[in-house]
User: What shape does this take?
Amino acid sequence: MSPFLTALIASGTILIIILSTDLGTRKVTNMRMLRSILAVVIVLALFVHTLPLDGNDPSLQLAGIGAGVICGLVAAALLPAHRDASGEIYTKGGVGYALVWTALSASRVLFAYGSEHWFSEGIIRFSIEYKLSGQDVYSNAFVFMALAMVLTRTAVLLNKRRRLRGGQLPVTGNTGARQGSSAGTH
Assistant: This one.
């Protein structure tokens, strides 16, 4: 499968899943997190058939992962979380959040299309000069970027949920005795 088609299907699938689960005010549930992780597993199974390790292939694939983590952190920053009166954790995905995901998905697809139709000669020269093995390494880098974005967003949501639930932890035993005994150990 060409890098363009891979980027189009993988990015489109992930974009649809993320926007359908995150736009608006949404409860943070285990199922919501699991859906994202399942999407990552399915996309990996469908689109990553080889793991090129020649020359600088690992570096490009790792760069895709790194870019995905950074983009996932940016996107997650635009997905605020809060705890309602009942103690449930919710996020609110708005226009900015949707624009980040849409712009990044579109840019992956556009780059993949351009590498096949507009600047294919430049990509070939770049691949030879930097010892990249070909289409699979580019496809993987794009898929890994998208998946790292999803996993980073999921990790940030889990952390937000954990942090917001922090004030809800059940109290066991005598907290005064615990505070008194820990005061002497510091």
User: Anything to note?
Assistant: The CA atoms of residues 15 and 102 lie 7 Å apart. The first strand starts at residue 24 and ends at 27. Strands lie at 24-27, 81-83, 89-93.
